[in-house]
Amino acid sequence: MNRYSDMSNSAWELLLTDADEDFYKCFTVCYDDLYRLGLYLYKDGELVKESIQLLFIEVWKIRHKLSEVKNIKEYVLTIYKRILYKEKTGSVKHWSKIDMFDHDNTTSQYTMAHEELLILHQEEETMRMKLLRILPQLSDRQKELIRLRYFEEKNIDEIATLTSLTPRTIYNTLHNALGRLRELMNG
């Protein structure tokens, strides 16, 4: 039995006990899987985190009615998808359109999304380590301008004010620095 199936059965049934500890345990057990599902659907981590919180607040409000639900997993996932959609669009008028999740192929898509996230994380980490190795090969001015522009997210005018350089000099230096970084990354 895979992890998703495990979550969909016993973990969601914890909501039916009406015990605070079981409710919290359900949240803890299901959070990662809900997070991966949300990222699969919308690719927005902050949206997903907020939506999971809203889901459990909503479920807490209706917990006394849950014993009447035939399929607790599908019921809660439907609420979750509605919340995700509402948070993303600011509207619930057309929530049925969010049924993008193919229930017949749930496990493979769900697992694939998790594996894709792991691969993406590994690739980003590899790129970050390579960048940290080659960054010292730039001039001090290039490193300073890269830091201000891309790490501190300053615009060209702010950088000009901070460094007393002209915007043209900043553009040229950044252009040369990025070209050098590309060279070093590919070389």
How are the SSEs placed, and which strands pair?
Blueprint: H1 3-13, H2 20-42, H3 45-61, H4 72-89, H5 106-134, H6 140-151, H7 156-163, H8 167-186
Short characterization:
The protein has 187 residues and is mostly helical. The chain is built from eight helices and no strands.
What can you see in these coordinates?
This protein has 187 residues and is an all-alpha fold. The protein has two domains: 3-109, Rna Polymerase Sigma Factor, Chain: A; 138-186, Winged helix-like DNA-binding domain superfamily/Winged helix DNA-binding domain (Arc Repressor Mutant, subunit A, Orthogonal Bundle). It has helices at 3-13, 20-42, 45-61, 72-89, 106-134, 140-151, 156-163, 167-186. The two termini are 46 Å apart. Mean pLDDT is 77; it is low at 1-6 and 92-112.
List keywords for this structure.
mainly alpha, Arc Repressor Mutant, subunit A, elongated, 187 residues, 2 domains, disordered N terminus, 8 helices, Rna Polymerase Sigma Factor, Chain: A
Please indicate the percent range of residues in DSSP E strands (runs of 2 or more). under 5%
Q: Mean of the pLDDT scores?
A: 77
Class of secondary structure makeup: mainly alpha
Principal-axes shape call: elongated
CATH fold assignment of the largest domain:
Rna Polymerase Sigma Factor, Chain: A
Rg over CA atoms, rounded to whole Å, is 24 Å
Show unreliable segments: 1-6, 92-112
| Domain module count | 2
N-to-C span: 46 Å
